[in-house]
Amino acid sequence: MREFFDMSGYGSFVWSAYAIAVGSLLLNVWMARRQLRAARDEARRRIAMQENQ
Amino acid sequence: MNWVWFHRFGSPPYFYRFAGRWAPWFLGIAAILAVVGLYGGLVVAPTDYYQSDVFRIIYVHVPSAYLMMMTYCWMAVVAAVGLIWRIKVAHAVAAACAPAGAVFAACVLVTGMIWGQPTWGTYWAWDPRLVSSLFMLFFFLGYIGLRGAIEDRDRADRASAVLAIVGVVNVPIVHFSVDWWNSLHQGPTLMRSDGPAMPMSMAWPLLVMLAAYTFYFLAIMLTRARAEVLRRERGGTWLREELARLEVGS
């Protein structure tokens, strides 16, 4: 197990690269979902305003 | 040939529902493939003779690079479709590509730098492959900046589409830079005329990761495109129905 995390002495390089890659994938999912929620709220407000007029 | 199925995607409600139905599936498939690919890359693949275990960065670096280029090509193609046939949904899809593409490009550069330090002895070099990849990041950021700078959405769509199409010149430069110039960067590993330059035990996790990233891109692109379609919609009946359905569901 220790050997696996050590990566023949390159552990810090390998794991930091993987952390950045996985982190950016998750960041993209989170950002995309937040955008969709925001767009839905905006559309709701717009429709509510049109109905009030 | 019947092109009706293709035209349907130009309709905002059809596209919105289609994207909503498929995005979660694509994300799920991507997650499963990524788990398999990462297990293969980190555990199953043997240690490289020349680069030892640091070569394992390939399993996140190469798929990110492939995705950066694919995202750019796709963005330029749909931007051109939007420009030529004036299809709003196409512009929405193009706009949905850029933020994800910028993240992939940044990821390629950073993972590449981390790989460069132990193998080349430097994080950065003014090398054709590295510089052209940096340019690709700038094209994505420039595209986002240009859209943000123009208030009128139709004008923003047209101007950013032109920028996206011009930037396509950079795609073959990134891809072939290692062949055209004497580059510090190693040559292609998979896409070679004489077959992959790595044994199957090392290549399969990479292929699985490429598939995972493709499905992942589809999920992100469709989700972001839905948001873009909503922003362009001026309160049609389908939108009211869709939002009402959501409120009942939640």
Topology (SSEs and partners):
The complex is a heterodimer of chains A (53) and B (250).
Chain A (H helix, E strand, L loop, with lengths): L1 H5 L4 H42 L1
Chain B lengths: L3 H4 L4 H33 L13 H28 L2 H33 L7 H22 L3 H14 L3 H11 L19 H33 L4 H13 L1
Helix pairs in contact in B: 2-8, 3-4, 3-6, 3-8, 4-5, 4-6, 4-8, 5-6, 5-7
Q: What would you note in describing this structure?
A:
The complex is a heterodimer of chains A (53) and B (250). Chain A is mostly helical and 53 residues long. Helix content of chain A is 89%, strand content 0%. Chain A has helices at residues 2-6, 11-52. The termini of chain A are far apart. In chain A, 19% of the residues are buried. By secondary structure, chain B is mainly α. Chain B has nine helices and no strands. In chain B, helix 2 (12-44) packs antiparallel against helix 8 (200-232), helix 3 (58-85) crosses helix 6 and helix 5 packs antiparallel against helix 6. The longest helix of chain B has 33 residues, at 12-44. Chain B is globular and about 65 Å long. The mean pLDDT of chain B is 89. At the A-B interface, helix 2 of A face helix 2, helix 3, helix 4, helix 8 and helix 9 of B.
Tell me the greatest interface. A-B, 32 and 43 residues
Beta fraction of chain A? under 5%
Q: Which sheet architecture does the biggest sheet of chain A show?
A: none
What is the C-alpha radius of gyration of chain A, as a whole number of Å? 22 Å
Q: From the alpha-carbon coordinates, what is the Rg of chain B to the nearest angstrom?
A: 20 Å
Oligomer: heterodimer
Q: How many β-strand runs of chain B?
A: 0
The helix-strand sequence of chain A is HH
Share of residues in helices of chain B: over 70%
Class from helix and strand fractions of chain A: mainly alpha
| Main sheet record of chain B | none
Mean pLDDT of chain A: 89
